[in-house]
Amino acid sequence: MDLSSFLTSLATSFIIFLLLMLVFSWLSKKPGNNVVYYPNRILKGLDPYDAGYKTRNPFTWIQEAFSSTEKDVICISGVDSAVYFVFLATALGILVFAGLILLPLLLPLAVTDHGKSNKTTSNGTFTDLDKLSMGNIKEKSNRLWGFVFAVYWFSFVTYYLLWKAYSHVSDLRAAALKSPEVKAEQFAVLVRDIPAPPAGQTRKEQVDSYFKALYLDTFYRSMVVTDNEKVDEIWQELEGYKKKLAHAEAVYAESKEKGKPEGTRPKNRTGFLGLIGAKVDTIDYCTKKIDELIPKLEAEQKVVLREKQQASALVFFKSRLSAASAAQNLHARMVDTWTVVNAPEPRQVIWSNLPKQFYSRQMRQYVVYFIVFLTIAFYMIPIGLVSAFTTLANLKKIIPFIKPVVKQDALRTVLEAYLPQLALIIFLSMLPKLLLFLSKAEGIPSESHAVRAASGKYFYFSVLNVFIGVTLGGTLFSTFKTIQKSPDDIIPLLAKSLPGNATFFLTFVALKFFVGYGLELSRLVPLIIFHLKRKYLCKTEAELKEAWTPGDLNYATRIPGDLLILTIVFCYSVIAPIIILFGVIYFGVGWLVLRNQVLKVFVPSYESYGQMWPHIHTRIVAALILFQLTMFGYFGVNKFYYTPILIPLPIFSFIFAYVCSKKLYRSFHDTALEVAREDLKEEPDMEFVFKSFIPPPLAAEKPDDDQFEDALSQISRSASLA
Amino acid sequence: MDLSSFLTSLATSFIIFLLLMLVFSWLSKKPGNNVVYYPNRILKGLDPYDAGYKTRNPFTWIQEAFSSTEKDVICISGVDSAVYFVFLATALGILVFAGLILLPLLLPLAVTDHGKSNKTTSNGTFTDLDKLSMGNIKEKSNRLWGFVFAVYWFSFVTYYLLWKAYSHVSDLRAAALKSPEVKAEQFAVLVRDIPAPPAGQTRKEQVDSYFKALYLDTFYRSMVVTDNEKVDEIWQELEGYKKKLAHAEAVYAESKEKGKPEGTRPKNRTGFLGLIGAKVDTIDYCTKKIDELIPKLEAEQKVVLREKQQASALVFFKSRLSAASAAQNLHARMVDTWTVVNAPEPRQVIWSNLPKQFYSRQMRQYVVYFIVFLTIAFYMIPIGLVSAFTTLANLKKIIPFIKPVVKQDALRTVLEAYLPQLALIIFLSMLPKLLLFLSKAEGIPSESHAVRAASGKYFYFSVLNVFIGVTLGGTLFSTFKTIQKSPDDIIPLLAKSLPGNATFFLTFVALKFFVGYGLELSRLVPLIIFHLKRKYLCKTEAELKEAWTPGDLNYATRIPGDLLILTIVFCYSVIAPIIILFGVIYFGVGWLVLRNQVLKVFVPSYESYGQMWPHIHTRIVAALILFQLTMFGYFGVNKFYYTPILIPLPIFSFIFAYVCSKKLYRSFHDTALEVAREDLKEEPDMEFVFKSFIPPPLAAEKPDDDQFEDALSQISRSASLA
């Protein structure tokens, strides 16, 4: 790719971004679109527009984003969102601090040298742009000392800001856990791997007597996890008919208003997908079905509670301190029985995973790791091919009929700029669902943990495939013979091929931030879907709300995506310092756009109190180590005699990672007692805490008829017998 | 070494053992020696001889050893000793079960083949004995299948018995911790890394308020660790003068009885070592010194308790459950503050290590590891030389004047048999003290933990230096040129040199068990020292008791020693199966002799409730993996095509180690709550529990004047002010 196609790509991206921003400010002003652009505020019961900014111009959202504080974010979107901004701010901070030194230092060094302009890496990507990179420095040049200093500076800036961020997130987490509000999950622990109950005892009696003996004063009661598959099915069916009934009634009411005063009663077929079977009156049919299903559900609820108890339970304590302590203690001698961990939030419990046994979980984990490994290895091949086809020159050879298209200059430039990146982005969008599914299959008990696990897998996938795969793939295709020499040459090969692919990644980053964030901000896709649904499908208020209810930030793909960009920028920061500018724009625009989205759009679907942070932290350090290793290799390739001067850096990074995890990690896994000790605003309503964990299909229809009392009464009966 | 010198060596060892056994049965019958042969029983207040065996013959001790149960051992010597026997029995069990298959299978296979009799390893050790080893099998022979089967059989026997042993030890530990007896350490936790107290609070107030807030109901009181260096010095001096006074009074009384009725008052000089300075009357001098020191001690005790408080404390709870739970909980968010761990037994607390700070401990650990690494690497050289000189042929060349000695046939044989082994044993006896000192310097809070750490270091040392060092050293010396080829050849080289050194290790093991255990049993050295002391030095009862008080089992060297033997036997078990016989005798005789010693002689100096076991277990598994890897190498050297069939074994071993540590290890680190929950025989006397932790130099002279009350009263004062 030459300079002109690169600039074209940049310009197009920027124009698209500007357009999308204008579209956003125009659309978001229309009150009919409020539910698309301000759903989070509406759901929180707030006015869509902030009181301070009544007069709105296209840049009001930017003002609002800048003036919002971390406290606002925590208040409206939770600690997890705030932690995500800590991540964005830290990435931005690292790049700004590093860039302030690296750009004025390295660019002049590179431009004024005339090293290898002719004998550069082989695939012909050497252009004016490359004059700004380390590839322009002569071999063995003393100017390389400047680049060595840059690597050190970059590393220490990263250590410093990461350390500050980790401490800050730890404070945020502690503050949230200390909060005087009653949070149900802080009063409960999750117990798994319960051994078979002794003869003559029910599961519930067993759990109650076990924990009563250990926590005499603070034990409240327990909830044995049940096999809800069947009751869940009935409940889903019932809810379906309820929705259908509401919809049919709305249609009927509408028809009365519109046409005949007696209206048209909606009809449907009872068979497969409403296509076959007898035609029936929908309202009557649904009412009948609902009347049938309610007693069936109640009967099944009773059966489930009595007979489908599993080897897992939630145990409730009267104090946060007891629950926090219980979750850290070894209860039984054998680690694979009576496993006790912190309870997840009620809304993020993955019920079906709770009864999975210890060894089953271990086995599942390894099987999943193996499958993920295969996935990563398997995708290597297509990604390698994609990157090999990236140059149109190659495409022309393989698909001759593309020639006329390529002849047109403008089109050719655009194609050349975007084709490979588009292929890559589409490619990557296929994977996240699979990874989340696999992570859940490991037996993880909470949604947020599963998301973290999926995010980790996705990160390995992206770094291995996109970064290393593209870099090596591109070079391998051009210098195919090198691979035959020896597998030991992989690291120098990686180092050699880095500068050649710098422009690829520059455009990749640019595309991501301008087009990605433009689409994010303008919410064109959700807007269109909402209006279509509102017009043709939604009849009731509930249906309408469902149509505009936004998702959450989707950390499972967002964070690995950002981390991939960060890894790329890290690795190229010294080789082609101009990428730092792109990184700054990516994280700066990202911070701005997402600040808007978090405050106004996204509704978090769970709260893990920043448990994502150690995960992010480790991966940033990993990116840093990768950067340090490639730099070591690259200096070696440049035949710089003092290359070993870089050896201490990866060692520092490992020590840094070790100290951080040693000092700060445990409080992200366990709740420190001095945090759990803090007083509450009021005595907790334990009945409310308990009820918030009852899964909806088991919640009794009539509020006074608490199914769970049944189970409790068994205990008092057995206690009176004892 | 040829067959005759090997047999001579065996015979001499055996005769020495028989002689020592006879000496033992003769000497142990004399009542005057009871304190040497039955000190443990005497200290426990038992009759030296068991009631059941009044008529004693030379084999009574064997009968007694066999008839004793594990319960007896726990009762008289504690769980640690019982765990040591589990280790011996497991080692014995593995070798017996393996031997039952391996000996009848492999010996015939080896004897009836005539593979490499002439082209064996180069250093001329191939003798009749080697016909029994795998070295006698032809290359690529199908008979090697038998040896493959043997490796598998050996591995699975080991897994099975190790698993049983681990569960059994876990039961022993739980039973001991559940015991209804009050054990002071179960009611206390050790708190380290306490941050600086807030202004206006003493250390003690800080600790008390911190733990009172968290454990409102069960907190009893705390004991802040103090800097005892000076008070300890004064106390030592005082105790020294007290002993001297008692001695002088005994001498004076004796002189009255013997000669003049007024007696001779003993005198001494006050200067250096009693050699210079003014001559004074010892009784008067000591009395004066004691009168001076007592008020000095009391003053210093007050100063220490008030002003020398350190950033560490022992915190006492009213229930075992609370203490067990507290030791597992994260108290402060930062892991490097308020570190809480189980309290060690009072008698094994290393007081000076308690106030060491978190990062200081970490740094010390790495520094110590580095020093140990240097030690291991440094000793490599002398051990290599020793093993190279082992053959007399070499010695003759280097020290010509040894020739006339060597000419004498009998002497030559004995020398040839013992010289290298003796050199090795003397060599190894120099190290343990250094390693224990280094382990304590790491900042470990308890004696038993330091012993475990030292034992681990000693094991690495022995395996690396003795086993691998001797094996490689011997071969390197003879085939010195091979090392120049390539460092990659180390593993095949190790495998090649194994059979050549088999006889060396056979004699090494034989010497260890016959002479070592003979000396152990007969206790000749302690006996002689005791009688000398009694005759010439001891005047008072206390001095006499000090003279015969036995040591403990000394796990720090005993266990690595046994593990070294086990590693050697493991590695040679298939190559030269005859070594299994020797291993069986070593562990069999060891079990017998030590059963006697544990029941009658050794007095354990601490009790760690079997925490040594995971340590032993890991090292047995490591030995097994080393065995599997060398066998893999050795089959490769024999050009056996199906060698890869051995690859799964090390993987199985890793999985086995992982499962064991996952399932069973944590209960050796933390006390499971269901174990700590067990009821006590009686309400614990908390004042007694507290006092048992007061270090002797701080214990008040007068029982009613409790120095610690001072500190406590400070608290009640501050509480009343609040």
UniProtKB/TrEMBL annotation, chains A, B:
GO molecular function, one term: calcium-activated cation channel activity
UniProt keyword annotations, A-Z: Calcium, Ion channel, Ion transport, Membrane, Transmembrane, Transmembrane helix, Transport
Compartments, record wording: Membrane
Ranges where the CSC1/OSCA1-like 7TM region domain occurs: 364-635
One Pfam family recorded for the sequence: RSN1_TM
Domain called CSC1/OSCA1-like N-terminal transmembrane: residue spans: 5-164
A cellular component term, taken from the record's GO annotations: plasma membrane
UniProt main location, coarse: membrane
Xref: InterPro entries: Csc1-like (IPR045122), CSC1/OSCA1-like_7TM (IPR003864), CSC1/OSCA1-like_cyt (IPR027815), CSC1/OSCA1-like_N (IPR032880)
Membrane topology annotation: Multi-pass membrane protein
Transmembrane parts of this sequence: 7-27, 82-107, 144-163, 366-393, 414-438, 458-477, 498-519, 563-594, 615-635, 641-660
Family (UniProt): Belongs to the CSC1 (TC 1.A.17) family.
Protein name in UniProt: CSC1-like protein ERD4
